[in-house]
Amino acid sequence: MGMPAQNIRWTAEMVRALPDDGRRYELLGGELLVSPAPSHLHQRALRLLYDLVAPYVHGNILGEVFWSPADIEFAPDTILQPDLFVVPEPLAGQVKQWSEIDTLLLVVEIVSPSTAFGDRNRKRPEYQKKRIPEYWIVDLDARIVECWRPDDSRPEILSEQLIWQPIKNLPALTIALPEYFARVFGE
Questions:
Q1: What is the CA radius of gyration of the chain?
Q2: Burial class (CB in 10 A: 0-12, 13-18, 19+), 62
Q3: Torsion angle, CA of 63/64/69/74, rounded to 10 degrees?
Q4: Residue 25: beta bridge partners?
Q5: What is the pLDDT at residue 1?
Q6: Whether residue 69 has a cis bond before it, omega within 30° of 0
Q7: Measured between alpha carbons, how far is 135 from 152 in angstroms, rounded to an integer?
Q8: Each residue of 53-69: pLDDT tens digit?
Q9: In whole angstroms, what is the distance from residue 149 CA to residue 27 CA?
Q10: Which domains does the chain have, with CATH numbers?
Q11: b/e for 120-145, b at 16 or more Cβ within 10 A?
């Protein structure tokens, strides 16, 4: 997450009026946060994770999987752009604008040096407050995934296997993390 921009209280409307300049604009409690465009490695990690999550979500009719840029507006002074997120059914098929999304089934951030603090310490509490069932922080440098749930004070740190079971009687999605990270790094 980049540096806070200016010392004014921003609104979602003001952020939407900014030019499309390749930067990532997010809004937390009226504070504008600006980040550079993601790296190639970040985007590869995102694509590979999408390739694993999307068939599971779509095959089990859980909702729809999206990626940023997408302005998820939780409040008039809060817009977040998760790297990957799942809009649950039945909302998924009805969404016409990002501002109509008020709940998510899963949120994923792939951290970089410029976003790590914000993803862990600014965005995470917001996702927990919104009762997002799972928030994954993918740390490429450490080759781990931090899994957060709404009431967690500490994450579950995963290095071998990520298991996601959004509905109890549904078979779980299992991601072998060493293989995922090896693919990300082209090993």
A1: 16
A2: buried
A3: -20
A4: 34
A5: 46
A6: yes
A7: 11
A8: 999 999 999 999 999 88
A9: 22
A10: 38-184 (3.90.1570.10)
A11: bebbbebbbebebbbbbbbbbeeebb
24 and 34 Cβ atoms separated by less than 8 Å: yes
Q: Which H, E and C letters describe the chain, residue by residue?
A: CCCEECCCCCCHHHHHCCCCCCCEEEEECCEEEEECCCCHHHHHHHHHHHHHHHHHHHHCCCEEEEECCCCEEEECCEEECCCEEEEECCCHHHCCCHHHCCCCCEEEEEECCCCHHHHHHHHHHHHHHCCCCEEEEEECCCCEEEEECCCCCCCEEECCEEEECCCCCCCCEEEEHHHHHHHHCCC
Low-confidence residues of the chain: pLDDT under 50: 1, 3-5
Amino acid at residue number 183 = R
Question: What global pTM score does this model have?
Answer: 0.83
- Please list the residues that pair with 80 across neighbouring strands: 72
What's at 58, amino acid-wise?
Answer: H
Q: How do 78-80 and 134-139 pair as beta strands?
A: unpaired
Sign of dihedral through CA atoms 33, 34, 39, 45? positive
